[in-house]
Amino acid sequence: MSENELKIDAVLTMARAGLFGLMLDARQPGVSVPVRLAEDSCLVLKFSYRFSPSDLEITEWGVKQTLSFGGLLYRCAIPWCAIYVAMSPVLGHDLAWALPEEPPPAVRVPFKGLRLVN
């Protein structure tokens, strides 16, 4: 199973359970987030099928959903190459994939319950 297939499987499982978060490097090619967040190397976004509008897409390309930022809607698009942690408060576990060569400071601190996926 490829790294992207592992990510898709894990994120689909988390999405079916409810709310989940993704930690990503917004500077990566293909990432579409509000301009004020576009340089964040340790951005955490929350996703759910229950959000309105309910347009969550989890595909071979990545994750897309319209999210609210201060009451303003923005269609976010996150390719798998930018995602390095998936978190599920519902399932009670977090998963990490290959971290950037220079992880952001927040990632250098061990996560409680973080499990590295090879």
Describe this structure in words.
With 118 residues, the protein is of the alpha+beta class. The chain has one domain: SspB-like (SH3 type barrels, Roll). 16% of the residues lie in helices and 35% in strands. It has helices spanning 3-17, 105-108, and strands at 20-24, 43-47, 57-58, 62-69, 72-79, 83-88, 93-96, 114-116. The strands form 2 sheets. It has a 5-stranded mixed β-sheet. A hairpin with a 4-residue loop joins strand 6 and strand 7 (93-96). The longest helix has 15 residues, at 3-17. The protein is globular, with a radius of gyration of 13 Å. The chain starts with a helix and ends with a strand. Residues 108-118 have low confidence and may be disordered.
Order of helices and strands: HEEEEEEEHE
CATH fold node name: SH3 type barrels
Taken as a percent bin, the fraction of beta residues is: 25-35%
Binned, the helix content reads 10-25%
Kindly, what is the distance between the CA atoms of the first and last residues, rounded to a whole number of angstroms?
A: 10 Å
Low-pLDDT stretches: 108-118
Give the tally of β-strands: 8
Helix and strand content put the structural class at alpha+beta
Looking at the overall shape, the CATH architecture is Roll
What's the overall geometry?
A: globular
Mean pLDDT across the residues is 83
Query: What Rg is obtained from the alpha carbons, in whole angstroms?
Result: 13 Å
Major β-sheet annotation: 5 strands, mixed
Q: Going across the major beta sheet, what is the strand order?
A: 2-1-6-7-8
What's the total helix number? 2
In CATH terms, the superfamily is SspB-like
Number of domains: 1
Using the coordinates above, name the CATH class: Mainly Beta
